[in-house]
Amino acid sequence: EAGVAQSPRYKIIEKRQSVAFWCNPISGHATLYWYQQILGQGPKLLIQFQNNGVVDDSQLPKDRFSAERLKGVDSTLKIQPAKLEDSAVYLCASSRQISDDPSPLHFGNGTRLTVT
Amino acid sequence: GNSVTQMEGPVTLSEEAFLTINCTYTATGYPSLFWYVQYPGEGLQLLLKATKADDKGSNKGFEATYRKETTSFHLEKGSVQVSDSAVYFCALSDGGSYIPTFGRGTSLIVHP
Questions:
Q1: For A50-104, what is each residue's pLDDT tens digit?
Q2: Which residue does chain B place closest to A41, by CA atoms?
Q3: Which of B98, B101, B106 is the mutation pick for testing A, counting most A CBs within 10 A?
Q4: Dihedral sign computed on CA atoms, order A49, A51, A52, A53
């Protein structure tokens, strides 16, 4: 099966600019996650979708970050305006579904964002 | 809330040495436990998992046993190879929120 696709692979922007990341999950995976991974730290969940609904966005800085998954398939994550501390790798992951036996996540290669 | 604590890295070993990477967790209920690996330049990928107490997950020579009494899920391998050099992440997903929580990762460097 094709893996999780993310683009772009790298992005360099200046602070206060905006940026968008795109993710296409594995076909048939209902659950989609966006994680932020700052250098030297573990991935931190930003938002979790189940189909096109939001399951959890409690750690998403909503004053500057937004995400959508309008048709329950691919998703975009946007930052506007960017700050220096947003420099990180943004990971998209998908899994089959929420169930009594949580499925493992399948990750894309990530987008490395540098804010100067 | 849920949390995962991993030993600090980097862990530096010679080829064929024995590997242990410690992982302990805090969670409500009965979580599923995972080890993910991230090779240089690649995304995270599942290495192994265990879904209940005393289960042993294994893959590619790596093993980890779900120890409920010590809330631990330590990763072991009897003989590491240079190709095992990567960052290893311990993670849990509990039966309540199903939101995966990751540790900070442990870098492993294996020298020939």
A1: 988 998 999 999 999 999 998 889 999 999 999 999 999 999 999 886 555 567 8
A2: B104
A3: B98
A4: negative
